Amino acid sequence: MFELDMRSRKPIYEQLVDKMKELIMNELLKPDEQLPSVRQLATELSINPNTIQKAYRELETQGFIYSLKGKGSFVNPNQKAIDKEKITEMKKELEKLILEALYLGIPAQELISLIQDLDASKGGG
Predict the structure, then answer these.
(1) Which of 27, 46, 91, 119 has its CA at 20 to 30 Å from residue 112's CA atom?
(2) Residue 94: which residues within 8 A CB-CB, separation 6 or more?
(3) Would you list the DSSP string of 61-94?
(4) What is the DSSP string of the chain?
(5) Residue 72 φ/ψ region, left for φ over 0, alpha for ψ in the -120 to 50 degree band, beta for the rest
């Protein structure tokens, strides 16, 4: 389910957050599906439970999961209703990257094709 690169400069908890978000966005983890417990995942991945807890906290802050005391963590069914601030922030970041790519000489059509290929491979709409 998870492949972590222990030699990566990216912290393990960030790798976990990114992987979980990918699984949720690709609907491999369904709305209201229970996530593995912190202890279970820590044992499975052979990493510190605090690292898992930190990743779960970050996912909860970002609205991808929710926790029920004594029950565990679950995929948030309202994840599709991401707040507008996050979308605005992402558009600004994309704009900077696109302008940099154009400045470096990547043709606009190549960028458009890349977006269309990514959209098709993710089953976007």
Answers:
(1) 27
(2) none
(3) HTTSEEEETTTEEEE-GGGGS--HHHHHHHHHHH
(4) -----TTSSS-HHHHHHHHHHHHHHTTSS-TTPBPPPHHHHHHHHTS-HHHHHHHHHHHHHTTSEEEETTTEEEE-GGGGS--HHHHHHHHHHHHHHHHHHHHTT--HHHHHHHHHHHHHHHT--
(5) left
